[in-house]
Amino acid sequence: MVMSNEYFREYYKKNSEVLKEYNRLYYKLWRIKNKESEKLRISLYKIQNKIKVNAQNMAKRNIQMPKGQICQSCNIREAKDKHHKDYSKPLDIIFVCRECHYKLNRGIK
Prior knowledge:
extended; mainly alpha; 4 helices; two-stranded antiparallel sheet
């Protein structure tokens, strides 16, 4: 029996909360079991992305998210994230919702 993509879409819609919780627990256990490789992965990321990590840390320390801030990209949803357009300007950020942040990081219009 061949299952179509439509079947999997419907299955995910019906069971999305259970699947999200399962994945959350699975990866939590994976990180515990693979603590050393996870530390190495994080260290390598910080070395390879030093400017990005420094900009994110500076923004985290110095800029608070205003309560009730509306997304500066779509002007519809509440902003949950901070987005850097240019990491060489660490305090030049915009407040965006999760969906717009995903799109901005992937270059989707």
